[in-house]
Amino acid sequence: MKILVCISQVPDTVTKIILKDNNTAVEEQGVTFIINPYDEWYALVKALELKESGTASDVHLITVGKAGTEPVIRKALALGGDEAVRIDAASTDPYQVAGYIAAYVKDTGYDLILCGKESIDYHNGAVGPMLAELLDMDYIGFATDISIGENVATVKREIEGGEETDSCSLPLVISCQKGVAEARIPNMRGIMSARTKPLKTIVPAEIQALIGIVSYEMPPVKAGVKLIAPENMDELVNLLHTEAKVF
User: Where is 78: in which H helix or E strand?
Assistant: First the structure.
C-alpha cells in the first residue's frame, strides 16, 4: 500500500504577524515557518506507523509552495518519509491547492491520502475534502483512529456529542486530528538521511483560483483590566451593567 501525506507550511504560532502592501499581504521576513502541526504530528506520524507495522510499503510527501518551503519538507523527510514532491506554486486558495495535488496524484496509484484536519494559519479545513472530490475518492474527516484491513479502512472520528466509526474501501482520503497518533521528534539519523532522499519539484497544472484575499485585519487590541476594591460593590455592579460584554 502506498500512502501520500499532504504537508503544508505555516508560520510558527509564536510569530508576530506584520502586515504589508496596504494590509494585503503578510511580511515573511523574519517569520519562522514550521510544518502544519496537524499534518506533522498526526497525518505523517500515522502514515509512518502504518509503514512500520507492515501495512504500508511507501510513505510519500507532497506540498504546494515555492523554494522557501523546502526546509519544511526536508524535516518531514527526516521524520521518516521516503520521498517528496514540491509543486512549485504559491496559493492561498484551497481549491487551487487541491487541484494542483489532484493533477499530480491522478496517475500515481496511491491507496491512501492523509492530511491534517486543517492548517493553523487559515483554518479552512477544505483541501482534504476538495482533493477527494477531484480524485473521485471517498473522504473521512477528523479521524482519531485509523486501522487498515483487507483493502478497507476502519476510522473512528469525532462528531458532535460523541464518536463515530466508519468503514470504507480504499483508495480513500482521510483528514487527521489529535488522537490518531503520537507526535515524534526527528533523530540525527533521520536528519542526515533526509539530505539525500528524493525531493522532486514539478510545474503546477493550470488551475484557476476561485478566491483571493482582499485584505488582512489585525484583531482589536484587548482592553485593560479594571480592578475594583472589595468594599466597592456598587461600582462593580454599575460596571457590569454599563461596560461588561457578554460573548
Answer: helix 70-79
| Separation between Cα atoms, residue 244 and residue 247, nearest integer Å | 10
Amino acid at 155: V
Q: Sketch the domain layout of the chain as residue ranges.
A: 2-217
Mean pLDDT of the chain: 93
Cell 456598587 locates to 234
In angstroms, what CA-CA distances link 114 with 1, 32, 82, 110, 149?
13, 25, 15, 11, 17
Q: How far apart are CA 16 and CA 7, in angstroms?
A: 23
The pLDDT of residue 247 is above 60: no
Question: Residue 56 has what pLDDT?
Answer: 96
DSSP annotation of 113 reads E
Cβ distance 68 to 31 under 8 Å?
A: no
Beta-bridge partner residues of 60: 4, 83
Convert the pLDDT of each residue in 179-207 to its tens digit.
999 988 888 889 899 989 999 999 999 99
Hey, what CATH topology would domain 2-217 get?
Rossmann fold (3.40.50)
Kindly list the distances between the CA atom of residue 26 and the CA atoms of 135, 171, 177, 193, in Å, as whole numbers in the listed order: 32, 37, 27, 33
